[in-house]
Each structure stands twice: as C-alpha cells, then as structure tokens.
Amino acid sequence: xxxxxxxxxxxxxxxxxxxxxxxxxxxxxGTARDMLVEELSEYGSFTGTSIEIVxxxxxxxxxxxxxxxxxxxxxxxxxIHQTADSYIExxxxxxxxxxxxxxxxxxxxxxxxxxxxxxxxxxxSSRELRLEIDRTKKKLDSKIERNERTASSIGDVLDKKIVDxxxxxx
Length: 170
Description:
By secondary structure, the protein is α/β, with parallel strands linked by helices. The chain contains eight helices and six strands, in the order βαααβββαβαβααα.
C-alpha cells in the first residue's frame, strides 16, 4: 500500500526558530511567511510530500478559518481565538485516522510534540526540519550537477537516429 506522506508545519513556530526567517519576520512578517511557503513548496515538490502550513489568526479578526493553496502548499489561517496548536491537533487526528497517511508535524513546542506523538504522528523539531530541507537541497543540487555532466554534448541529448544521420553528413 502506497502511503501519502503529509507534513504539517506550525508556521510561526518555525519562522521564530529559523534565524534567517526570524530576522526577516521582525521587519516584515508577510515576507517571512512567503519565504517559508516557498522553501516548503520546493521541498514538497522534490520529496513528493504534501505540505500544510498553519498560522495563528495574526491580525485576523475573522470568525472562520481560511485556507489558500500557494504552489503545491496548503496554507491555513486559524479563526480568531483559535490557536495553530489546536488546529494542528484536530488536523493530526483527522489525518492519522487513515492508514493511507503518514503524518509528520514540524514544531518545537514540547507539549504539541507529545500530543501528536500520542496520536500516531511523527514529530520533527523546527531545527530538524531546517536540516532536512538543507539535506534535500544538497541532493537536488547534486542530481542537477550529475545531469549536467552526463549531458555535456549535443549527442547526449539527441535521439540516436538523429546522431547517426548527422554523422553521415560529415
């Protein structure tokens, strides 16, 4: 049975933990959110992981939750008076109820980590997520470099029949 790998990310927890995003977020929180979504989108595309990012209702007086899809990432904004933690807990229970899902939750909140582990999800700290993304980027860079080395001449990218036909023109 193929299982779907899902990563739920406690958005502000990760932004505040990652030095670069934390510094940017101090100046412009929207930019830090966009950068987090972009990084996780690349990670999800390369690994085949479904990504869900949850943000507390920051400056949002809405009484309803909001969800938007950015690239291949689902971004959730909780409603007023709802924490990202409570949303993540509810979502974790929903997703882990199906054996088709393997759920990871990225947060450095200790209480949250205990809850999600008790519900059958895997926990990953914000720091571990940073390391995982960096490892994945290195793998991607290495793969691109290997492809560039192996396709170093025009004959490497053309069909053999075309190469043979061109060879006869010499």
